[in-house]
Design goal:
alpha+beta, CBS-domain, two-stranded antiparallel sheet, 5 strands
Length: about 140
């Protein structure tokens, strides 16, 4: 296992993003359509936040919603904007950060995804799932 390999080797390069002007119903559709749990929020080319599926669950009372149901009360979603729900204080990494460095950051923090930025532009996203898959491939 190459722990000093760059994170660009395992990051997701085709990043699904949201704009600050998108609504939470759009976010829910993207989460479900692409089977993902984190979406960077951008304003133009600049990343301004990260929305997680857990963030949506917290506001939608989804614990009480049947998982087979593809809709959550749109009334609840209309009460909030993406900017109100997303995480704003982000830590990012460059594509040259090592897999070990990224694993250490994710192990010490309370989040499970990091945007990968080249200068100020998002070029990828890396999640704890990406790291686990990498480790499993090498065992």
């Amino acid at each position: 296992m190459k722990i000093h390999a760059p994170i660009s080797d395992i990051m997701t390069k085709k990043v699904i993003t949201l704009k600050t002007t998108d609504d939470l119903e759009t976010a829910e559709l993207l989460f479900k359509t692409h089977n993902i749990r984190h979406i960077p929020v951008v304003n133009g080319k600049d990343i301004v936040g990260m929305l997680s599926y857990t963030d949506l669950l917290r506001i939608s009372f989804a614990d009480a919603v049947n998982e087979d149901d593809n809709t959550v009360e749109s009334l609840v979603y209309n009460m909030f904007t993406i900017e109100q729900v997303m995480a704003k204080k982000l830590i990012s990494v460059p594509p040259t950060a090592t897999i070990k460095e990224v694993a250490e950051i994710l192990a010490m923090r309370e989040f499970h995804a990091l945007p990968v930025l080249q200068e100020r532009t998002i070029v990828g996203i890396v999640t704890t799932t990406d790291l686990i898959k990498y480790m499993l491939k090498h065992f």
